[in-house]
Amino acid sequence: MENMKKGAIYITIFLIFAVTLFATCFDFPAYFNQGVDYFNNFFAKGGPASGWNFKLIVPHIPDSAFKLGLDLQGGVHLVYQADLSGVEEKDRSSSMDGLRDVIERRVNLFGVQEPVVQLEGERLIIELAGIKDTNQAIKMIGETPYLEFKEQRPADELKKIEDKGKELEGKKTMEEIQQVPDWQVAFEDSFMSASTPLTGKYLKKAEVGFDNNTMKPMILLQFDDEGAKIFKELTARNIGKPLAIYLDYQLTQAPIVQVEIPDGKAQITGDFKVEEVKQRVRELNA
């Protein structure tokens, strides 16, 4: 019995030592990896005896920096309460999901590592570790999502952008690019810099739909009466051309106009997945 107790103690001590050593290697991987390199090089040469004909390769432990949270490196902790009084009960959950998607895209502009954007009922909680300009973060996150529609540039302007892009082919550094006259033209948007009169304020709702023949998912848009008039004019003069949709000044999609749409009800079709359509609908409704 006494020998069994001693054996259990030895095993416990060994396990504690092994776990401690394992944790230390992960805390200080650089030292462990140096030993691994020596060990691998030693066996790569066949060991001390030339008769050895096997190689043993021990992998490195990833050397990644510690990611400090708000309590250690500071940052911004924001809590927003959504006003859903104008949203139907059945649409509130998807509206909050859409809002979260938009805010996640915005916080990525800050370059924050692993930002936290989560929902708690009708509250949106945001944590941005390491952010210095708190006021700028609050202003950008708190702005209403801006939806706008843009037309394609005239053919001559598109050709200038394309030609300038060809001039920059083979240029690998910024110094080489800047030596080309008017190099900025190559990076201009292929859509008009100014938006059309059609903006998000005229969008009544966006929904997920399915094609009756193929059952592929599609995006359904419905504009209000004033938006329908604007949309009719836009589609009439852009048949066969893309009409770009921008959210928060970022291009999200550019469907091709097939026909003039007089009633303000549009369908955006394509090789979409259901989850992709759901996300885009949430963003549009946000």
List its salient traits:
9 strands, 3-stranded antiparallel β-sheet, 4 domains, alpha+beta, Alpha-Beta Plaits
Task: Tell me about this structure.
The protein is of the alpha+beta class and 286 residues long. It contains nine helices and nine strands. It has four domains: 64 residues, no CATH class; 74 residues, 2-Layer Sandwich (Alpha-Beta Plaits); 35 residues; 86 residues, Gyrase A, domain 2 (2-Layer Sandwich), CATH 3.30.1360.200. It has a three-stranded antiparallel beta sheet. β2 and β3 form a beta hairpin. α1 packs across α2. 15% of the residues are buried. The mean pLDDT is 79.
Total of helices: 9
- The total strand number stands at 9
Q: What is the H/E string?
A: HHHEHEEHEHHEEHEEEH
CATH topology of the largest domain: Gyrase A, domain 2
Summarize the structure.
The protein has helices spanning 2-27, 29-44, 70-73, 92-107, 134-142, 155-167, 174-178, 225-236, 274-285, and strands spanning 75-81, 116-120, 123-129, 147-151, 203-210, 217-223, 243-247, 250-253, 265-268. By secondary structure, it is α+β, with helices and mostly antiparallel strands. The protein starts with a helix and ends with a helix.
